[in-house]
Request: fold
Amino acid sequence: MDFASLSTQLLVGLSRAMILFIVCAGLSFILGVLRVPNIAHGSLYMIGAFAAYSIFTHLGSSSSGFWLALILAPLVVALVSLVAERALFCHLYQREHLMLLLFTFALMLILDDLVKITWGPEYCSVLAPNILRGSVSMFGASLPRYNLFLLIVGPLVAIFLWLFVNKTKIGKISRAAAVDREMVGAVGINVSWVFAAAFVIGCFLAGLGGALVAPTVSICLGMDHDIIIEAFLIVTIGGLGNIWGALVGSLIFGVTHSFGVLLWPQFAIVFPYAAVVIVLLLRPRGLLKSVW
Amino acid sequence: MFRGITEKRLLWFLAIIFIVLLIFPSILPRFYTYIIALIFVTSLLAMSLNLVVGYGGMFQFHHGVFYGVGAYTVALMLTKTSLPVWVGFVAGPVMATVTGFLIGWFCVRLTRLYFAMLQISLGSLIWAIAFRWYTLTGGDDGIHGVPMPALLSSQNNSYYFILVILTICLMAMYLIVKSPFGRTLQAIRDNPQRCEAVGINVRRHQLKAIVIATFFAGVAGVLFVVLERSVFPDLLFWVLSLEVFIMCLLGGWFTFAGPILGAAIIVSLRTFVGIYTEYWTLVLGVILILLIFFLPEGVMGYFLGKFRPLAKEVAHRSE
Reply:
């Protein structure tokens, strides 16, 4: 294990953590405001990736196609989630908590098959634009450019989220709704629309994660099942509903996985799960303060 | 007195069902026998989950793991060791119970969603190990062609075996639910604080419930191997666990026999909708949404709710 492979592996882990962070931040945001673990989040992530593929190929697989896909695919996902929320989900807010959870599961089942109908079971791939292809030599290690790009995007998203939650009115309202929803309703704010906004923003982030991951993986059915379980675990170890917890959790998850690849490739997948178990045993309610 | 008569009738009814089920393999085609046996196995799994979810009020979100552990244990014992078959059959539920105790021991410290999340993470750990340990578990492919003793080699015989074990397990579960322990568990579900206050050890009761439920899940896992002669990592995956959870809700999670109904509905839907379309999860999703909107008590709960006022009225009149 030399320095070069170590730093490459670390970069891969960190960039994976950035994707996970973007997805989990959305999940955590929904969890914080609506108090529902959105099981359909993985499907929305998958739709983001497939939508990015479609937009990319429609625009002649060019570099500009990639950038446009990166902007449009999350909007498509946001639209899908807005329709689902306004048509069905918003009628359930008064109901028992478990029913909301089940609704998101039903949504996952439906969206998965809709993806299968729309895009078919084939593997799809998206090419990164020229400027992000290849790798950079740094300190004797070759670092893939796209992963470096993800390392820039992740913190940018984090900063935007921080600004959104702390500086904008809707962000503040959603934070208030997370703490005390009755009070928010009592001061004359339409809680139903706050919930809708939170749900759509969370799903937008899932779509963004999907669009960002598209050039690095082969897009296929089933990618939702893998990410959603990871996202749940990350959100749990970070502290439910805490966006910074999602960041910490993603870093733990991504880095342990990449070191698992170095140490014991066959069981690399076990390392992050074991890390999660250890964290939960030491701090059962997550590393950072949960909003609950 | 009226109550006594209805219970006697219920017993007769159950006896007739049992006899009908005994006759089934000789009159039905092989395929249907197989489907019914699969419904038996799945309903045992769903019933065991309902002990924790319906009666215990805990968010047991990864119950499939215990089913999978039971199935994997017996499959490994029968293929990799030359121990007698019954040792494998006993080891399956025992391993599931041990796993259930370990996972439950950590989980009962937490409540509701945290309980669910911790269980999903611990369960996924087991899934990841089974998925990756190619030399032992066959990884992705699982284990196929598990040898069965001659007694269980024909499909009809394994059907009878499953039916008998299911009946015994259901009786045992019924007795557990009606026992003081079962009553305490339901009291904890309805009001944990008050139970704590009157001196009930809430965590210990919850852990006991989990251990009992995981034992039955392990039995279901063994029966699955008897029926299918193969195991694969999807048995341990969380999607299966949620499906079983839905069976409980679909059938009615506050009723004893509801999960059987839920399992029957889901298994037959998957089989028969699956013949016409490959998009059967779409159908399941739509049904689930309809259920959430119109039948939140589950199918069984709905019918019981419809008839219960009637029964009460009759009971009132007879007094």
About this structure: The two ends of chain B are 9 Å apart (CA to CA). Residues 202-228 of chain B form the longest helix (27 residues). The CA atoms of residues 19 and 70 of chain B lie 29 Å apart.
